[in-house]
Automatic annotation (TrEMBL):
It comes from Lutimaribacter degradans. It comes from the Bacteria. This is Acetylornithine deacetylase/succinyl-diaminopimelate desuccinylase family protein.
Length: 425
């Protein structure tokens, strides 16, 4: 039996351990926002990885977006050196999960197993991938103790809210310097036979329209900011949305609908603030003098960020020409440029061969409709040899009754382990 066959058997033998690890991770409710239990999950991972010889470093993202004494942004970076010089392979997983939402029939933090699936918030996005990478590395170390280079595993904060308290901070501190790390695999749930090369770009902005407050019984004495925002939305419907639907990309974005430019109206609020749940009175009768809209614009590698912004300003100027009292502000909240690793990159080719060997079919190459932490490894860390590959079905992310298949975790762990054999032996 050669080393690869031994490794496949070793990972298969750890199936129950992989399942239990995924369950344990789900049972730590790392909700973001606000950022619960980040230190707890880092401590849990460190206890596990130190038993396999990893040196663990806790890194708090002091001063990063979201970091506070009440909700510190803790990250864990674990590294295990080989017996001789060589490349470093880094598996990066975010530990945070989004809100639970309505519609669950399972305990969101129970880690229940049923019909070969582990259920829970974060099961596929992406605690199943984190568990698979850990078991892959541990099995590889057991079978190939004399490997070259180094293996790193990180559990990082805040990917669901931009990653600034996680991978972005680590990249700024040099953890993804190409002299230190050569290959990065992010086990996001893109399906076990897919290699994700990158993602579309994103521009988040807040548009605020202004008016003049007045008594609600005499709206003609004021100026309604909500009506102004309604005119903005009408202009978007009439001109911007049709224009975005015509823009197409050569990037292999999935699903099919994301191969065009998109705009989501993330939130809208006008008038007085909503009252607390225990308030039983009525709102006061006022003409709203402010209305705010948050937009989420996803753009293609063929588009320029200046063009993306100019389209929004053109919409607002068109409204202004028709409404004499229309005034507004636009505030940028976040910008991320598109990222796409070349198919010829070493980590891409290595994982593609591993998928072929393990699953007997060619890997599919895709691009994510949304961003993930590759953006920071690419732009801040200046490391382009990075992909997303992991178990789980992308469409289940953030949904009720989220789950990850146990067979998928095992198969993905085998692909990760097979990749370590090629890169480090």
């Amino acid at each position: 039996m050669d080393v690869t066959e031994k490794l496949m058997a070793e990972i298969e033998a750890r199936r129950d351990d992989l399942t239990a690890l995924c369950q344990d991770l789900i049972r730590i409710p790392t909700l973001n926002p606000p950022g619960d239990n980040y230190r707890e999950i880092c401590d849990f991972l460190a206890r596990r990885l130190e038993k396999s010889g990893f040196a663990c470093e806790f890194v708090r993202a002091h001063g990063a977006k979201g970091d506070s004494d009440k909700y510190p942004r803790w990250n864990l970076v674990a590294r295990r050196e080989g017996t001789r010089s060589g490349d470093c392979v880094h598996f990066n997983s975010h530990t945070d999960v989004v809100e639970v939402g309505r519609g669950w029939t399972k305990d969101p933090f129970g880690g229940e197993v049923e019909d070969g699936k582990v259920y829970g918030r974060g099961a596929c996005d992406m605690k199943g991938g984190l568990a698979a990478s850990i078991v892959a590395a541990e099995a590889f170390i057991a079978v190939c103790p004399e490997y070259a280079g180094a293996i790193e595993i990180s559990g990082t904060a805040d990917e669901e809210s931009g990653g600034f308290g996680g991978v972005a901070y680590l990249a700024e501190q040099g953890f993804f310097d190409p002299k230190r790390v050569q290959h990065v695999i992010i086990p996001e749930p893109l399906n076990k036979d897919r290699i994700c090369l990158g993602h579309r770009g994103v521009w988040w902005a807040e548009i605020e329209t202004y008016g003049e407050i007045a008594h609600g019984s005499m709206p003609f004495l004021g100026d309604c900011a909500v009506r102004h925002m309604g005119a903005v939305m009408t202009e978007m419907e009439d001109t911007l949305f049709p224009a975005l639907a015509m823009k197409r990309t050569d990037m292999p974005v999935v699903p099919e609908g994301a191969k065009q430019s998109t705009l989501n109206i993330n939130s809208i609020h006008g008038g007085e603030n909503e009252q607390a749940a225990d308030y039983t009175g009525l709102p006061s009768p006022c003409v709203p003098d402010s209305c705010r809209m948050v937009i989420d614009r996803r753009f293609l590698i063929e588009e320029d960020i200046d063009e993306v912004q100019a389209e929004i300003h053109a919409i607002l100027q068109a409204v202004k020409e028709r409404r004499a009292t229309f005034t507004y502000d636009v505030r940028e909240l976040q910008r991320v440029l598109p990222s796409m690793t070349e198919k010829s990159a070493p980590v891409v080719q290595t994982v593609a061969r591993a998928i072929s060997d393990v699953m007997g079919r060619d890997a599919q190459y895709v691009v994510s409709p949304g961003t993930y932490d590759q953006k920071h490894i690419d732009r801040i860390g200046r490391l382009q040899n990075c992909i997303a590959y992991g178990p789980g079905i992308l469409d289940l992310a953030h949904k009720p009754d989220e789950y990850v298949g146990i067979d998928d975790m095992v198969d993905s762990a085998k692909v990760m382990g097979r990749s370590l054999v090629e890169l480090l032996t």
